[in-house]
Amino acid sequence: MKHQLTVYNSLTRKKELFVPLHSPFVGMYVCGPTVYGDPHLGHARSAITFDLVFRHLSHLGYKVRYVRNITDVGHLENDADEGEDKIAKKARLEQIEPMEVVQYYNNRYHHFMEKLLVLPPSIEPLASGHIIEQIQLIEKILEAGYAYESNGSVYFDIQKYNENYPYGKLSGRVLDDLLSFTRELDGQQEKRNNFDFALWKKASPEHLMHWPSKWSEGFPGWHLECSAMSSKYLGEEFDIHGGGMDLLFPHHECEIAQTVAASGKESVRYWLHNNMITVNGQKMGKSLGNFITLEEFFTGNHKSLEKAYSPMAIRFFILQAHYRSTLDFSNEALQASEKGLQRLFAAIKTLSQLKATGTSGEYVANLRVKCYEAINDDLNSPILIAHLFDGVRLINAVNDGHESISPEELENLQNLYKTFVGEVLGLQDETASETDVQLIDGLVNMVLEMRIEAKNRKDFAASDQIRNRLLQLGIEVKDRKDGFDWSKK
């Protein structure tokens, strides 16, 4: 079947047919985390949303270069141009190096993304590793006349830019809105207008993270990194730029302005944004006491949680809502997702054991069409999941002898669930996974007990052969006086 994928473009505010610039190659850039704390449910939603995009584009046959950045410098408190760098502040409070903070929380982020079966991006650049590119971009913007230097800092001149290009086209904001939106802050006297934003900030003496430039010893503004890194790895024009709805303004709006000011053209064809997470109807936030990290979800150690929730329960819960809709967390909603996921995998297990019982109609072919129509309609995962549960009824009916299915249709149905559940939605049966681990552990222990028996018989050749073979398979064995220990390399 011919696939017509549509996506909702935040820039045009309508669904558009997805047509890559250079098919079958797709360039996708997604704003990753600022790594100064453990990832939370909001991080999970954004990561899973664009993992779904990545997985489905790959499934359709596109060669996707997926770039997801890590912000490790320049992101100041309250997303402003003044205050302390979020990572430097964490480093100061914990009395460690800023890059220790970055490495620790970057490792934590990857650990939890792996648990959620979020595929790693093709490239994951750090802002601190691209200072030269950011300085070069500032020079281009200054050369074009859309920025100015002030006391060692460099600011983007929004009013000058707006004379030639429409600032605010992504968010719908205009300069009058900005005047009321932007708060007066210390140091704003450096700016021509209080809504101008920093491209380069002169570092104060106590600032921990700074680099040399022709303007001052300082650091790049937060918005700059994505413009510099996306153009470096995806070129001046690419297909998709994604991130959370909270980044639409000012971050992504500023990115557009910077890029157009430097090159005279827009770089992104499709802007995609996932919506926010709420908790019992309230926006998730530390000040409200409803901020829950992924580790707390997985362990159940939070006052708002009735129990621990598995990574697949979290992933399934997120996928049951359309990425552009608000997703409200509650224990009831998550427990309903758990039950739904168990029912889905129970049906898949039944499907793997089904026997063809005769002839069948067009149900499987029609189900396949409906599944593709759903996911191709702006990544509509909840409708896709609903269709998969329609198929569960057929699986159970065939198993109970109330429906028949031909060998060909049975194979097609098995492939359909393998494709959409595992490949596209990225869901895995955790129960089966735990069983597999227990089976492997049991087999290794049994083989090692046979090795102990060989040693007791003084058959050292057999003992060494078992040890060496296990080592080839990636299992290291350490002998003890009273037995053995083993671990995977």
Give the SSE map.
Layout: E1 6-9, E2 14-17, E3 25-30, H1 41-59, E4 63-68, H2 86-94, H3 98-115, H4 131-144, E5 147-150, E6 153-156, H5 158-164, H6 175-181, E7 197-202, E8 218-220, H7 224-234, E9 238-244, H8 248-263, E10 268-274, E11 277-279, E12 282-283, H9 294-299, H10 311-319, E13 327-329, H11 331-353, H12 363-376, H13 381-399, H14 407-424, H15 430-456, H16 460-472, E14 475-480, E15 483-488
Parallel strand pairs: 3-4, 3-9, 9-10, 11-13
Antiparallel strand pairs: 1-2, 5-6, 6-7, 7-8, 11-12, 14-15
Structure, explained:
The protein has three domains: 269 residues, 3-Layer(aba) Sandwich (Rossmann fold); 146 residues, Orthogonal Bundle (Isoleucyl-tRNA Synthetase, Domain 1); 59 residues. By secondary structure, the protein is of the alpha/beta class. The longest helix is centred in the last third of the chain and has 27 residues. The radius of gyration is 27 Å and the shape is globular. The protein is built from 16 helices and 15 strands. The strands form five sheets. A four-stranded parallel beta sheet has the order 4-3-9-10, sandwiched between helices. Strand 9, helix 8 and strand 10 form a beta-alpha-beta unit. 47% of the residues lie in helices and 15% in strands.
